[in-house]
From TrEMBL:
It comes from the Eukaryota. Residues 1-11 have a biased composition (Polar residues). Keywords: Flavoprotein, FMN, NADP, Oxidoreductase. Residues 1-22 are annotated as: Disordered. SUPFAM superfamilies: FMN-linked oxidoreductases. It holds the Pfam family Oxidored_FMN. InterPro entries: Aldolase_TIM (IPR013785), OxRdtase_FMN_N (IPR001155), YqjM-like (IPR044152). One of its GO terms (molecular function) is FMN binding. This is NADH:flavin oxidoreductase/NADH oxidase N-terminal domain-containing protein. PANTHER family: NADPH DEHYDROGENASE C23G7.10C-RELATED. Its cofactor is FMN. It comes from Candida verbasci. Residues 44-390 form the NADH:flavin oxidoreductase/NADH oxidase N-terminal domain.
């Protein structure tokens, strides 16, 4: 057999997760590479177990709306390119942007949706590609509540959009008929009936089921932050109801907890469930949801066997100060104090992530070493630099495995090349035996 007669599969059988050829990755990109037998990874590159999942590092891609769906709220080739570029370079996990669980639950007409099976099927290509790279990927499930039916921010910031542009101003609902910003660009919502509340609870569960059974995501995240519907129910600022879903802490948390129960009832018990929360509303109103409320709520989440609490803040009170001012005194990323307080409260009973302003790998590594949080979720830095994990490894003076397609030009030394060749040879032998 001449060299020209040798097929690609003789060198690498290809990843079985996709119907086209992409090489089977011997090691997940972003995995710490030992240059000597005694090398130990810094905290960022220590594996993290979340239920049945094992992350190869502790840097994840935070969900970020792209406002680029079809008019049916389905993914397009843009999303495959966008998420593919990220997962190829090795984050510990990637969370697909908030996807509406109900037809009128999107932030904008260009948000992704997952309220029907076809929307879920269109996401399969993204998930299969991520799995072909040995990468973990999940989806954030959300409902915009009183912040629904607005323009994508690159068209007009916080501008309500009517039916002529694909909006649904007459179908914007919230716990109470209170607009987000008085005299602003948001519509005044209608108050949800009990029947509608029960339907949205079912919608979250059904969307989670589609995410796992059809799209094959590895986990789901429930969006209960940033002034969207679930956050609106939690907060006394936006929830003035007098029935079983308003008033006391127990009543205001009921909606979110019933959603968790519904999601759990419709997906396998070993699928991790995350929840993102605004741990503080950063509000001048003394009645606003605060860190003590979040600690109390975290205790309930532990009982509900939530896998990870994703800590953010704000978004439900237009009077909140600029984010850059919130942690000015401590001179640290704005959500670090909140994550620290929650992690100290829950200990090892609940994993805690932090998001927002995490730009310095040395500082992030120290927070992880100190146990301030368990996972760093990063948004804007990944948009700027999809190879952020790789970049942070360089700055920390360590090496990580790269994908086979990229690695040929960047492997740090001969030994790593030899290691990967040996692993690939083992894959080929396993393939030949099948």
């Amino acid at each position: 057999m001449t060299v020209s007669e040798v097929s690609t599969s003789d060198y690498n059988p290809g990843a079985p997760e996709v119907p086209y050829y992409t090489p089977k990755q011997p090691v997940a990109a972003g995995t710490f590479y030992k240059q000597t037998p005694d090398d130990e990874p810094p905290a960022i590159f220590k594996p993290l177990k979340i239920g049945k999942l094992t992350l190869q590092n502790r840097v994840g891609v935070s969900p970020m709306c792209q406002y680029s769906s079809t008019d049916k709220c389905e993914v397009t080739p843009y999303h495959l390119i966008h998420y593919g570029a990220l997962v190829t370079r090795g984050p510990g996990l990637t969370i697909v942007e908030s996807s509406a669980v109900s037809e009128y639950g999107g932030i904008s007409p260009r948000d992704l949706g997952i309220w029907n099976d076809e929307q879920a099927r269109k996401m399969i290509d993204i998930v299969e590609y991520a799995h072909s790279q040995k990468q973990l990927i999940g989806i954030q499930l959300g409902h915009a509540g009183r912040k629904a039916s607005t323009q994508p921010p690159f068209i007009h910031l916080e501008q309500a959009v009517d039916e002529s542009a694909g909006g649904w101003l007459d179908k914007v609902y919230a716990p109470s008929p209170i607009e987000f910003r008085p005299f602003g660009n948001y519509v005044k919502p209608k108050e949800l009936t009990i029947k509608q509340i029960k339907q949205i609870i079912e919608d979250f569960g059904d969307a989670a089921k589609r995410s796992i059974e059809i799209s094959k995501f590895d986990f789901v995240e429930i969006h209960s932050a940033h002034g969207y519907l679930l956050n609106e129910f939690l907060s006394p600022i936006s929830n003035k109801r007098t029935d079983e879903y308003g008033g006391s802490f127990e009543n205001r948390t009921r909606f979110v907890l019933e959603i968790i129960d519904n999601v759990k009832s419709k997906i396998p018990t070993d699928i991790p469930i995350f929840i993102r929360i605004s741990a503080s509303e950063n509000s001048p109103d003394e009645s606003a949801w605060n860190i003590e409320d979040t600690k109390k709520f975290a205790d309930i989440l532990i009982e509900k066997e939530i896998a990870l609490l994703d800590v953010s803040s704000g978004g439900n009170d237009y009077r909140q100060p600029p984010r850059s001012n919130i942690s000015k005194e401590k001179r640290e990323p704005m959500h670090v104090p909140l994550s620290r307080a929650i992690k100290q409260h829950v200990g090892d009973k609940l994993l805690v992530s932090c998001v927002g302003g995490l730009t310095d790998p040395h500082l992030v590594n120290q927070y992880l070493e100190d146990g301030t949080f368990d996972l760093a979720l990063v948004g804007r830095e990944f948009l700027k630099s999809p190879g952020l994990v790789w970049e942070w490894a360089d700055k920390l003076g360590v090496r990580v495995y790269t994908s086979l397609q990229y690695g040929w030009g960047f492997w740090p030394n001969k030994q790593q090349v030899i290691d990967l060749i040996e692993i690939t040879e083992k894959l080929k032998l396993e393939h030949d035996k099948q």
